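Quick illustration for those who missed Monday's session on complexes.
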Amino acid sequence: MSKEIIKIFDTTLRDGEQSPGASMNTEEKIQIAIQLEKLGVDIIEAGFAAASPGDFDAIEKIAQRVTKSTVCSLARATDGDVKAAGEAIAKAEMKRIHTFIATSKIHMEHKLKMSPDEVIKRAIRAVSYAKEFVDDVEFSCEDAGRSDIGFLKEISDAVIEAGASTINLPDTVGFRLPSEIGEMVKVMSEYTKDRAIISVHNHNDLGLGVANSLEAVVNGARQVECTINGLGERAGNAALEEIVMALKVRGDVFGDYETNINTKEIYPASRLIANITSIEPQPNKAIVGKNAFAHESGIHQDGMLKNRETYEIMSPESIGLVKDDTLVLGKHSGRAAFKDKLAKLGFTLEDDALNASFERFKILADKKKDIYDDDLRALVTNEMTKSEQVYELVSLQLMDFSEGTPSSVVKIRKDGETIVEAGIGEGTIDAIFKTIDRISGFDGKLQSYKVKAVTEGKDALASVTVKVSFSDDEPAIIGHGLHIDTMLASARAYIGALNSYLSMKGKLKKRFSDSSKTV
Ligand code: KIV
Ligand code: ZN
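Prediction with 3-methyl-2-oxobutanoic acid bound:
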């Protein structure tokens, strides 16, 4: 008997980006979309087109790059949102508009201040209008988990009639238990039958997002919405990697279902997103945490040596984690070996990006004896997601670390010209950032600064992430910098944020006052 396909709808770029501190620039979003396509997700929710010109721009670019997955934009149930969504995805090979309105009593009364009848009218209008742009329309009953089942049936009838082919039932606040989600999905899938696909979208406030999604599948859901690393609003969304691997590893229970996911792309996807957002999955996170395949106790190690299955229910290779190959290239490694290694790590680079990454690798290999997989992942991700280099750091000189006033001399290239400035600050980082401000003429406000060692050793690469606000009425921008020297990594991160800001200038402002946070 052929298995039923469970569609994987990835919302890392939309709900995931709503995680505090997870905002991404356009280049970063494009690289993530390319990886999601490689992973085999059926639908990529690329963003929320009406939120800001920057969001629109990123969705539009993703729509032109991705061909094997459906590209989707979220839209509230308003003409303006639906139009923006339709225009942003217009060039996609396969496209979907995902429109939503809240259906729970508490949301309708207190947030929308609308009667159930008005909500149904708005939903019908949004779906009918979306059909003018695309064939494939998904409708979400926001806060379905706390909505009246009779009302869910009524609004579903109405939007299916208007042309929606997927009905999504989000547990927006992560309140429901698996048995309750299972019951809701069973009732709704038996009710809608083959008129629509029932989808779920579970938030993780009680840590039940994945369990709820699996229970939904068993009860008739044929689409699951999720994010890589479980990123998302508040406690996040159900984690894609956990749902997919549970379905696969527990084939004895879920044998009737399969997904289109190439599980070997899970680990590369997880690392890419962790590197871009600087949000590391917790070490003991299922599937992709640093310790997920580490065996510490002697008894476990002994068992593993005798038979891996004593303590491993899936292999690291099955998620694309090549474990026995962590120590990699050195300064004598050539371009071919470098390219080959990157391919093993899941990166396929075009010539220009490959050359630029190889140059950076060579510089690093001169300073650092052992270059590990994680060093390469960080370096290549950093190279591939750079915005246009308006300002480029040439050199940095620091003085007076211990006593007196820290000062810095920064040399920067802009439009072929070299600019040198000196500045002082309360601390070294302050001095560097203030000097860069003097050169650029901006007065950046540093909102957060994070530094981590990418791998081990005193010569480890420092990865610095800064969040800087360059203007009072636009959101803060993230910048990343990598270098063996933490101060140089910091300068690069700050300049990275500045370049990103300049590439997005004028496109950052949210179009509505309640920000892009929709739920
Ligand atoms: O959690 C939620 O309800 C959502 C909808 C917009 C689908 O993210
Ligand atoms: Zn959500």
